[in-house]
Design a protein that fits this description.
23% strand, 42% helix, Chloramphenicol Acetyltransferase, 2 domains, single chain, alpha+beta, 13 helices, 16 strands, 5-stranded mixed beta sheet, 6-stranded mixed beta sheet
Amino acid sequence: MDKPLQRIDHLMWDAETPNSLVTIAGIMTFKKPFSRQKLTDIITRRLLRFERFQKKVIMKEGNPHWHLDEQFKLQTHIHHIALPGKGGYNELQECVSDLISQPLNHNKPLWDIHLIDNYKGGSVLLVRLHHAIGDGISLVKVFFSLTGKTAAESMSLIDIELPPPKHKTAADNIDQLVQLGKNAYEEGIQMLKNPSLFGEVVKNNWRTTKEIGELFLGKTVENTIYKGHMGLTKKAAWAGPVPLETFKRLAKQYHVKINDVLLALVAGAFRKHLIAHHQKVNEGLKIIVPVNLRKQNEIMKLHNEFSFISLDLPVHISSFEKRIAFISEKTTTLKPSAEPLFLNEMLHLLADYTPMAVQKIFMEFMGKHITGVVSNVPGPDHPVYLAGNMVEDLMFWIPHTVSLGIGISLMSYNGKVYMGLVTDEGLVNDPDAIVAAFTNELNQQKKLLSRKKQL
C-alpha cells in the first residue's frame, strides 16, 4: 500500500534542487579486496528487510508517496568500479566528489552502493542515500545492523527479525500530557521555594528567543566566501583518524564537552581559511548544528526525527581558550532549551501543511542566513566487520539541504574521530586547505597538552 511521505521526510524530498542534492554519502574502507558476492548476500538478507530500500517515490494526488518498486533489481543498486593509478587519497577524493555531485535515480529506490577496488591495496564501500529515507542517526543504525562484532557474526545470513513498531495509543498520549503536567508543577514548586531560579529560566528563555530571532531576522550572510551561486559540482575532503582520547583530554583540560572542542577546532580552521583568502574575520559565521530528538532506546526505524540549534561559529576569536568558552556557553544554553523543539515543530508544519512553492521560499530564506552545517554522528565504539572484513575507517558527507556552500561532518568509530568536508566547488575549490587548517589547530592544542603534562 502506498504511504505518503510525512513530516521532515516530506520536506527533505521537496528540498532537492539540481545544484543542492539532498543525498547523504558515506564510506567504509577495508584493508583487503572486498567480495561483491558476499556484499550482495548481506544486502539481500540484512538491508532489504527495511521496506524503504525497495520503495521509490511517486507523485500521487499532488503529493509524494512511498511505492513498492515492482521492477526492483538489486544488481542495479550495486556498482563495482576501481580507482585508477596509485589508488590513494587523491584518486578516491576525485571518485567520491564525482559521485556525490550526481543525483540519485528517482525512478528507483533512492540509494546505491559503489564497491571501489584499488584503494591502498584494499576496497572501499561508498553508500549514497536520499535524506528522505532517514536522517544520519537512523541511517547509521541501519547500516551498522549489516555488520557484526566478529567476522563470523558478520557472515551470518540468518534472517534477523525486526521488533514490531510501537504505535502510540490514546493512553500513551494522556500519560505524556500527565507527565508534562507533573514536570511543570514540580518546576513551579522549585521556583517558589527558590525565587532565584525564576531569573535563570527567564534568562535562558530570553537567550533562546534571541537566537531564534537572529536566525530568522538577523542579517544575511550572502557576501562571505562560502555563499553565492551554487553549481552542480561538489568536492569532498576528509581528515583523520584522530584518537578520541585526544579530544577527551582537551575537553577535560578546558572543562567542556567533546563537541565543544570539535566546534572550536572547526572555527579555528575556518578562521585560517578566511584569512588565507583575505576575508574579514571581525564577526562569527552563523551555522546550524543538527540535534537528535530520539529517545536513547527507541526502536530502530527509518525516518527523519531531528532539529537543530543555531550559533555563531567564533571565527573572529583568535584565542582557542576564549573560542571554546564562547562555544560552550552557547551550546550549554541552547541544547536543553526550547529552540530545537520549536524548530522541529516548525519544520513539521512546513512539510505537511504548506505548498511546495512556500517551502522553497522558506528554504532559500534560511539559506541566506546560514553559512553552513556542522553535523556530529556517533558510531560504534568497537571494531565492526562486514561480510567477514573489518571496517578500518569510515566517514560521511552531509547534503546541502539549503543553498549552503560548505558542510562539516564529524563521526566517531572504534576510538577514533573522522572529519568530513563537502563544498560547492564553484565557491570553495580548496577544501583540503580547511582540512589542513583543522589538523594544524589540533596539533597546536596537542603540543600545549604535552607541555602541561611535562610541568
